[in-house]
C-alpha cells in the first residue's frame, strides 16, 4: 500500500473535525463525538466502495491491486468499529428537530449496522465458500445505501446543505455510484479483452490455459496478474490469476491455475478449446528490477507461475545471478522443471534448486544466506507462496541483513482473514491449560 493513499484516506476521515469542533461549545460533546464516528465511518465506506471498482489509476495512488484488496478488508473492519461505537455511544442531542423521516431513518440505521456487521464478519471468516461469500458481499452496497439514508434524514446538529453536510454527502454519493457501477452498469458494459481458448493442458493438478486474442489483446509485463472470465460451463464469474508466460508479440496469454476450490475445479473439468474468454487487467507490480544485483526467487507450489514468466525474459534483459528455490511436495513429475532447466542452461543466469519436503528438505534462511555467500545486503528476494512461510523467511532474512524494501511479494490470496483461527486456537489452548491447572491443584495432597 502506498503511503500517499493511506494519508488521503486518513485526511478524508479527519477533515469533518474542522466543522465538528466549533459545535462542541453548544452541544453535548459525547453525543457529538458519536455523530463524528458515524460520519467518518460513512466516509471510509464510501471510499471502500470506490476502491472495489478497479478503475484505472487506483494502483498509482493506493498501490498494487493485491494490496488494495487487503486495504479494502481493513477499511471495512475500521468502518464497522466506527459504526459500532457510534451505536453504543448515545448520539441523541436535546433541542434537535427531525424531519418526517427521522424515526424511519433511525430504524433503517439499525438494520444497516447489523447487516453490515454480518457481511463484514462473513468476509473475514475464510471457511465460508467463496461463491457464497461473493454473493453475500454484493449486499454490502444495499446496506451502505440504508446507512446513507440514515445519515440524510436523521436528527443532527447541521443541515445537509451546510459545508459539513455536503462533504459527507459527497462520499455517500461516491459509494452509491461505485456500487451501482459495479453491480448494475459494469456487467452490462463491454470490458476487458476478447480471447479464445487455444489449448488446455492438465499438469499434476494444474490447468494450463493458452489464450489467443480476438482483437488487439492485453499488454502486460512478466509477473502481473489478470481477471479471467470464460463464456460457458458456469465459468463466467471473474477470477484473478497470474499470467505464467512472458509477454508475446501476438499478445497471446498463458494462465496456469491450481485446482483449489469450486471455480477452479469447474475450470479443470469444463474448460475446452474454442471457448470464448474475457481478460481484464493487467494488475500488480510484482516485477524484476533492473541492474546486476543478485536475486533470490522463492516459489511454493503454484507460486512458480510468475517466475516462469520472469525466467522467459532473461534472454532479453540484463540481470545478476539468480537463485530459484522451487518448494514442492511431489514424488513424480514436478510441473515446469524441464522448462526451467532449459532456460537456466540457455541463459546462464539462473540456478534452479528443487526443495522437496517429502524428501525431508526444507528451505531455511541460513541456506539462502550460505548460497549467497553472505551477500544479502545487495540482494533482491522475490516470494510467491503461502503467507506463513513468507513471514518466517522475511523476518529472518531482514534480521540477517536483507533490506526490508528488497523483499518483494504479492498477496497469494485475495480474500484473507484477520487471525480469527489463531485467536480460536490460542483461546482453546488457554482454556485447556486452565482446566488442567485446576485439576492439578485439586489432586495435590493437603499439607
TrEMBL record:
InterPro entries listed in its UniProt record: FAD-bd_8 (IPR013112), FAD-bd_FR_type (IPR017927), Fe3_Rdtase_TM_dom (IPR013130), FNR_nucleotide-bd (IPR039261), MRET (IPR050415), OxRdtase_FAD/NAD-bd (IPR001433), Riboflavin_synthase-like_b-brl (IPR017938)
Domain FAD-binding FR-type: 190-289
Any Pfam family hit: Ferric_reduct
Topology in membrane: Multi-pass membrane protein
Keywords: 2Fe-2S, FAD, Flavoprotein, Iron, Iron-sulfur, Membrane, Metal-binding, Oxidoreductase, Transmembrane, Transmembrane helix
Domain of life: Bacteria
Transmembrane segments: 36-53, 74-91, 111-130, 137-154, 166-185
Cofactor requirements of the protein: FAD
Compartment(s) where it occurs, according to its Swiss-Prot or TrEMBL record: Membrane
Name of the protein described by the UniProt record: FAD-binding FR-type domain-containing protein
Amino acid at each position: 500500500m502506498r503511503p500517499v493513499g493511506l494519508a488521503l484516506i486518513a485526511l478524508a476521515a479527519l477533515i469533518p473535525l474542522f466543522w465538528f469542533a466549533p459545535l462542541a461549545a453548544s452541544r453535548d460533546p459525547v453525543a457529538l463525538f458519536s455523530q463524528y464516528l458515524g460520519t467518518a465511518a460513512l466516509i471510509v465506506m464510501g471510499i471502500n466502495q470506490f476502491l472495489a471498482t478497479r478503475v484505472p489509476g487506483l494502483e498509482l495512488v493506493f498501490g498494487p491491486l493485491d494490496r488494495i484488496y487487503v486495504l479494502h478488508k481493513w477499511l471495512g473492519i475500521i468502518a464497522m468499529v466506527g459504526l459500532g461505537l457510534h451505536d453504543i455511544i448515545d448520539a441523541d442531542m436535546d433541542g434537535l428537530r427531525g424531519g418526517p423521516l427521522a424515526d424511519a431513518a433511525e430504524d433503517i440505521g439499525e438494520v444497516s449496522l447489523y447487516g453490515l456487521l454480518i457481511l463484514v464478519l462473513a468476509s473475514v471468516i475464510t471457511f465460508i465458500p467463496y461463491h457464497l461469500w461473493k454473493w453475500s458481499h454484493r449486499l454490502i452496497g444495499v446496506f451502505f445505501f440504508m446507512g446513507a439514508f440514515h445519515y440524510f434524514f436523521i436528527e443532527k446538529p447541521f443541515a445537509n446543505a451546510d459545508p459539513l453536510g455536503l462533504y459527507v454527502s459527497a462520499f455517500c454519493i461516491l459509494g452509491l455510484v461505485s456500487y451501482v457501477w459495479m453491480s448494475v452498469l459494469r456487467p452490462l458494459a463491454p470490458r476487458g479483452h476478447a480471447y479464445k481458448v487455444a489449448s488446455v493442458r492438465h499438469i499434476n493438478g494444474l490447468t494450463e490455459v493458452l489464450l489467443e486474442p480476438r482483437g488487439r489483446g492485453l499488454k502486460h509485463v512478466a509477473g502481473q496478474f489478470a481477471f479471467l472470465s470464460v463464456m460457458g460451463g458456469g465459468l463466467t464469474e471473474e477470477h484473478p490469476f497470474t499470467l505464467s508466460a512472458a509477454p508475446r508479440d501476438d499478445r497471446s496469454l498463458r494462465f496456469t491455475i491450481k485446482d483449489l476450490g469450486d471455480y477452479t475445479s469447474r475450470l479443470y473439468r469444463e474448460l475446452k478449446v474454442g471457448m470464448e474468454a474475457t481478460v481484464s487487467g493487467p494488475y500488480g507490480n510484482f516485477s524484476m528490477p533492473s541492474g546486476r544485483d543478485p536475486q533470490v526467487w522463492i516459489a511454493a507450489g503454484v507460486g512458480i507461475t510468475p517466475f516462469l514468466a520472469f525466467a522467459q525474459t532473461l534472454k532479453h534483459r540484463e540481470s545478476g545471478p539468480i537463485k530459484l528455490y522451487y518448494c514442492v511436495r511431489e514424488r513424480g513429475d514436478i510441473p515446469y522443471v524441464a522448462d526451467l532447466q532449459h532456460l537456466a542452461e540457455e541463459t546462464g543466469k539462473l540456478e534452479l534448486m528443487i526443495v522437496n519436503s517429502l524428501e525431508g528438505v526444507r528451505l531455511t534462511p541460513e541456506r539462502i544466506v550460505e548460497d549467497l555467500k553472505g551477500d544479502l545486503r545487495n540482494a533482491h528476494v522475490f516470494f510467491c507462496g503461502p503467507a506463513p512461510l513468507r513471514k518466517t523467511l522475511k523476518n529472518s532474512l531482514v534480521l540477517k541483513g536483507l533490506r526490508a524494501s528488497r523483499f518483494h511479494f504479492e498477496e497469494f490470496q485475495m480474500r484473507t482473514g484477520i487471525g480469527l483461527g489463531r485467536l480460536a486456537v490460542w483461546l482453546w489452548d488457554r482454556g485447556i491449560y486452565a482446566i488442567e491447572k485446576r485439576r492439578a491443584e485439586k489432586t495435590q495432597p493437603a499439607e
